């Protein structure tokens, strides 16, 4: 008979205890409040008078937040002690680990600007505790390929209209269409329809056909392309919501301690059965001896 290795049982017990702690609602609330408190500390540090007067207090509060975040990561790593690969499959775990661990890197701690940027990145960790914010961030990430295509088409439209504006209005309005760069900047500002009325009036003084130029540009750039971008983002938002629903639909195998206990018992039983079986090379010989004896 073989028994499970003590290290294996120890890892399972450690993972079970850490998992109970990390899955508790109070744990998430404490970490969420610590993230907001850390963000508030960064805001207070922007006031030079307060930062200088309460420098030791602010530094102590920052160290307490860092200690709490470190404890959080240790508990999350411990919750995956029985299956370490599962920890690295979660992108949020990797992001949290990178943000927290960077505070202990000597080169980062000596660079004040980089350290503040990494401390600011801790605010993004609130998405872990806010499902709707997490869905929005996932949607933004999934919309990047479509957004890149949209930007290419938008730049192409902007360049074509800028060249047409340079040809038609360069001599009459060199301040706005004296070069293709100025024309593109003017049209880009007109994308929001701000100042379009003044641009149309100035164009009508040059040629009545300019109304076609501005109307077609406003229709294409401000309505068609913007609606296409909105459609890309909404489609990515639906995909992100479906992904979140599928992730929540999958039952977690370790939320019930009884299930884990039954799995451990089944593993021990399989180990005992495997240990009681003869080696693979001896089975045919025993079967052959049994056949001769029967004969």
TrEMBL record:
Membrane topology label: Multi-pass membrane protein
Gene Ontology biological process: membrane depolarization during action potential
Region (Disordered): 273-295
Keyword vocabulary terms for this entry: Ion channel, Ion transport, Membrane, Transmembrane, Transmembrane helix, Transport
Entry-linked InterPro entries: Ion_trans_dom, VGCC_Ca_Na, Volt_channel_dom_sf
Highest rank taxon of the organism: Bacteria
Gene Ontology molecular-function annotations: voltage-gated sodium channel activity
Annotated Ion transport domain residues: 25-243
Membrane-spanning intervals of the chain: 20-41, 150-169, 211-234
Locations listed in the record: Membrane
GO CC annotations, alphabetized: voltage-gated sodium channel complex
Keyword Membrane included in the entry's annotation: yes
Full protein name: Voltage-gated sodium channel
